[in-house]
Amino acid sequence: MWPLQRDTFRPFVEPLFGWDEAVARYFFDKHWRKRRVVVVDDRPVGWLEVSVEEQWLYLADIGLLPECRNQGLGTRMIQDVIDYADARDLTVELQVLVTNPAQRLYERMGFVDSHRRMYRPRPRS
After folding, report:
1. Domain around 79
2. Is the whole model's pTM more than 0.85, yes or no?
């Protein structure tokens, strides 16, 4: 699943932070166990990771291969998360990189921008 993660997130991460393959792989290996693979027609096309706190459901990670985007699959995945949370009276929260066009999808699905996380890039050599 590493190629799926790398190919999905690199275009959004690299413009902001650069791309360090070893660091990206480290975080993948550290967090992958928590994710559920999304399979369509016996082919892995993405993943989903959620965690539930007291009154919150945190959509920690969602990804689709580029060729699987804009077909409604991401919308269905997110709607399933929302339906699960609504049935349990939980608020759904997520974070999204400013370079990720999925922001528009999240807004269409009722998510609102509640805060900003800012960073100062390290100097590039």
Report:
1. 2-108
2. no
Could you tell me if residue 44 is inside a domain? yes
| Crossing angle between the packed helical segments 2-17 and 21-31, to the nearest 10 degrees | 130
Size (the chain), residues:
125
Q: Is residue 103 part of a domain?
A: yes
Query: What does the pLDDT look like over 107-122, one tens digit per residue?
Result: 999 999 887 777 777 7
Helix (H, G, I), strand (E, B) or coil at 63: strand
CB neighbour class for 38 (10 Å; exposed up to 12, middle 13-18, buried from 19): buried
User: For 20, which DSSP code?
Assistant: -
Contact by Cβ (8 Å): 105, 78: yes
Q: How far apart are CA 91 and CA 16, in angstroms?
A: 29
Query: What are the helix and strand counts (H, E) for the chain?
Result: 4, 4
How many domains does one find in the chain? 1
